[in-house]
Amino acid sequence: MTDLTTRTAARPVTRCRTCRADDWQDVVSFGSVPLANGFLDPAAAYPDEPRYPLGVVSCRSCRLLSLTHVVDPEILYRDYAYVTSGSDTMVRHMRGVAETCRRRFGLAPGDFVVEIGSNTGQQLAAFQDTGARVLGVDPARNLAAVADAAGVPTLPEFFSAGTARQVARDFGRADLVLGRHVFAHIDDISGVVSGLRELLTPDGVFAVEVPYALDLVERLEFDTIYHEHLSYFLIRPLCALFERHGMRVFDIERLPVHGGSILVFAGFADGPWPVRPVVSELLRLEESAGLYGDAAYRDFARQVERTRDGLRSLVRGLVAAGERVAGYGASAKGTTLLNICGLGSAELEFCSDTTDLKQGKVLPGTHVPVRSPQAAAQDPPDCYLLLAWNYADEILRKESAFLDSGGTFILPVPEPSIVAA
Ligand code: DWN
């Protein structure tokens, strides 16, 4: 087991991880914040709860958005509380990703699919259903064990160029390497991409799904800024990164999941995949949105402050008026939102969540207790602050009886708003 006391827990970022420049624009800083998935066992006090600097800068060379500090991944991921959501929304999405890849790249039964950050293997199981041979790579030993038990072979390791070589040697080259909401979590993404040269077949495809920084800025999704998300990608920095490694982005899909994401397809520059018009179309869209200049990020920071103040006032006003308020969905973005908006157990009685690993714990920083939906339904509040707003449609449908009984939801971003029946 790594001795974490001898490792640098939070290291400042110097050079841009996609283009290597060191010309940064300060964007936002939220001070020292607990880890978004740093759930705690209930206790009288939490003197040793770690907090780390949380802030974002923009690279003026390629316009990657990056955290200012990198927290040691051993701290973040070796025992991980986040389980890929089993929500209808995500199950449908993962099936869609498998079908898109199968159809678009002609994946045939027996073709080899590797997933970086494979969690409990749900996404790879969808590829197994199409006949693919699969292998997961995920450092969370607790989750890798669940995947293995479910029949999805998984290496409990961080993915790196060395892991890529090991997989190619032991299992053969991959026709598809997939990374869903993991690429933004890795500091040495240059090492990951260079590893793909060792792992992919010559016609192989790297499919990477990440939150889209254009959606983050335009929809004010500042609560998705937390220590696990080191990078916030536009197409421009991704193109810069792949081109540095003899690869190129050849196709992109915009997706609604996680507040707006992009599924980016990259292959070797001398490979068979033609670059589709969507690549230049999104580059033009990013430029017309002003995201290649400083002003857009100054505006973003100002709007974040307004939303933080507005949400704090709205929730505290409801509590002062005698309303009982609770959180709904102990998401990483949700714990972050509470900590950076200064909301906590003075305002929220509890937070409900469907994840077994989180129930009975308290939220990081605010120490709001997490209850199962069943326990929450026995004594529902007057109002839920929807911390899992990316599932709003599904959740509001599911909670129609709560709404019909006069209950309300607060949607926190882009502008705090109240939803009632
Ligand atoms: O990048 C990441 C994204 C993909 O997933 C990871 N760094 C961490 C994680 O972020 P998150 O925790 O914000 O993800 P979710 O899927 O938005 O979290 C939703 C939370 O809400 C889960 O804990 C499950 C819970 N939930 C619930 O209690 N009732 C979800 C639904 C749909 C519900 O009905």
From TrEMBL:
The keyword Transit peptide does not apply. SUPFAM superfamilies: S-adenosyl-L-methionine-dependent methyltransferases. Residues 16-77 form the Methyltransferase putative zinc binding domain. CDD domains: AdoMet_MTases (cd02440). One of its GO terms (biological process) is methylation. Residues 256-414 form the C-methyltransferase domain. It comes from the Bacteria. Keywords: Methyltransferase, Transferase. GO terms for molecular function: methyltransferase activity. Pfam families: Methyltransf_13 (PF08421), Methyltransf_14 (PF08484), Methyltransf_23 (PF13489). This is Class I SAM-dependent methyltransferase.
